[in-house]
Amino acid sequence: MAKAETQRLDLDPTRKRDVRSQFGALCWRRRDSQVQVLLVTTRRTKRWVIPKGWPMGGQSPSGAAAIEAYEEAGVEGAVSDVCLGIYTYTKEFDGDDLPCVVAVFPLKVSRKLRNWPEAKERKRQWFSLKKAAAKVQEPELRQILRRFDPKAAG
Predict the structure, then answer these.
(1) What DSSP letter does each residue of 17-42 carry, written as one string?
(2) Per-residue model confidence as pLDDT tens digits over 78-92
(3) Domains annotated on the chain, with CATH
């Protein structure tokens, strides 16, 4: 069976208060047969989250998620085009609330870098799926983490 071609996602410009789309990477590895996921802190509030960011011209959603994993968490690996799910959160810009929906793609980490673009701005840490789910604030992301199965991730 031929591998499906990844489609680029081009989004029309939206008004400031419209819901915005982002793409996130659920960065994972196996350690002693246990699945672990990598969380990073946000720059401002230092909450634990997955690496995520805005759509990028010329990049597929999973490709954009992989770039965010490199920039925010300093990891590289094989990203899957299989969307694990979506979650919502509100991003604050200068006191303005911006609703966001994040599509999450699994990235099997093969390399953890010592230096990466946002190393001075964020912490990163590996957690078990259960502990990671307890660390994040977004209920839908918590569910994605709890039910993550690498075998079904593509």
Answers:
(1) TS-EEEEEEEEEEEETTEEEEEEEE-
(2) 999 999 999 999 887
(3) 24-152 (3.90.79.10)
